[in-house]
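Most newcomers find our protein records easier to grasp once they have seen one. A record pairs a protein's sequence with a compact description of its fold. An example says more than a description, so a record of this kind follows:
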Amino acid sequence: MFGKWHLGAFQENFLPTSRGFEYFVGFLGGGGDYFYHTANNGYDWWANNTIDKSVYGTYSTFVLNSSISNFIYNIGKHHQPFFMYVPTKVPHGDYSAPDSWMDIYAGNYDGDTGAWITEIWMLDSLVGSTVNYLKDAGVYDNTILIYAGDHGSDSNNPNYDGSYGRDYPFSGGKGNNYEGGVRTPCFVHSPLLASSMVGQVIDDITSVYDWLPTLLSLAGVTPNSDLPVDGWDLSNLLFKGKSLSGHDEREVIIALKPCSYNKNNQKSYVSWRSRKMMTKEGGGGGGG
């Protein structure tokens, strides 16, 4: 795993290496300084369970790039199948980017807006570099790439041409359970996809917790029957175009109870394909 954890760090058994990941490079919290990796008056950059101060002053996306390269060439290609999870920080506040990149990509924008635009370009570059590493290591042809957002865009910050509607045509954004907060971009790319599936748009109701059973199925792994797996296996939908049985009546739980991010979380669920019930207005839609 390379990037942002933000799933608990109070005890060692909450850390990535205690939750199934053999390697971890990144930060445990929700944010921090891109260059100096400081957050909440502390330093937050780790290599497995050890603080790594050798990257102090190096922009986090550059650290992730070199770490991904090292893993693919020296570990991943020798141990197949492998699962690599890359939750990057870009784009995310606090907004900042290297001057050399800002000079090229920020255009006429400065401050947070210019840095935000540049961070998007840096994300694009990181994805492109990762694909090139996979190809150069000879594992690309047997790889499935999943690109997914964790929640909608922040609808208030940073300002871009006076518009806060980056989640249009959906209402809301990051921090609530309207469609703008919970419906996110996602695509699957792989040389293993049939030509008939390339470029297809899938409108079945799916959720982030479908990825675990889907990836287990694609890797030929049978889950432990004593540990029920949430979510649906999407492999036939993605690779054969077979619609999910019963998807028209599927319920997807979005939020159940308040959390520390916003104590007014909505309790809501999606069902009957086109209908959605929300029982309370407030937070949700991810806080990362």
Remarks:
- The longest helix spans residues 111-136.
